[in-house]
Backbone:
């Protein structure tokens, strides 16, 4: 009897796993797979939400997500919510991140990070930290809010709001922005940094100090 129940459980899990892969192939849009220590809900049980617990991992195309708990829900498994020890890696763009909580919209290709969040653009050697980060993978733009810190080469940037345009390689800072470039210091209402040349452009109440 125990062997029979175990066999049914394994078949049940494989049916669910196969259904996830079938979605990606049929729509020719996404390859979607998962793994975890435990699972509840999902298409196989008729529930609208799939919960993965314990060493949970989800792969959606080039994006790999890991967390203590992952919830998958919405039409065509559109939303992925990650909770606890969240990490992710966009293998195509070489972007790595860590956060307390994340929601990924697979349809729009937008990831929202909340809590102590770090985004590392390894290809461009930039590290960004904030309490909230929204990353649009299609347009390659990251919006950062609250206690923003950015580090690249000899640049250290601080502000309450920032936009990182990865495609065009520039930063826009507002909300008490402050930029350190080597030993030089720049302050203004708004600061724009060209990340290819390290040039700093300032607007409104411009201040600074230069060390020769």
Residues:
């Amino acid at each position: 009897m125990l062997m029979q129940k175990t066999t049914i459980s394994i078949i049940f899990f494989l049916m669910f796993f196969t259904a996830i892969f079938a979605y990606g192939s049929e729509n020719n849009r996404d390859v979607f797979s998962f793994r975890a220590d435990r699972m509840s809900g999902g298409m196989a049980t008729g529930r609208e939400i799939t919960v993965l617990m314990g060493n949970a991992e989800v792969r959606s195309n080039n994006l790999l997500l890991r967390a203590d708990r992952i919830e998958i829900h919405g039409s065509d498994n559109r939303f992925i919510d990650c909770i606890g020890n969240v990490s992710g890696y966009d293998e195509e763009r070489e972007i790595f991140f860590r956060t307390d909580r994340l929601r990924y919209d697979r349809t729009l290709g937008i990831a929202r990070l909340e809590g102590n969040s770090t985004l590392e653009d390894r290809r461009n050697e930039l590290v960004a930290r904030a309490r909230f980060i929204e990353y649009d993978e299609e347009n390659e733009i990251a919006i950062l809010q609250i206690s923003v810190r950015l580090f690249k080469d000899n640049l250290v940037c601080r502000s309450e709001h920032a936009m990182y345009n990865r495609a065009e390689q520039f930063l826009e800072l507002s909300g008490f922005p402050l930029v350190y470039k080597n030993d030089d210091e720049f302050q203004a209402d708004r600061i724009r940094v060209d990340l290819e040349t390290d040039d700093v452009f300032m607007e409104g109440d411009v201040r600074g100090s230069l060390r020769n």
Residues 35 and 62 are 16 Å apart (CA to CA). The first helix runs from residue 2 to 27. The first strand starts at residue 32 and ends at 35.
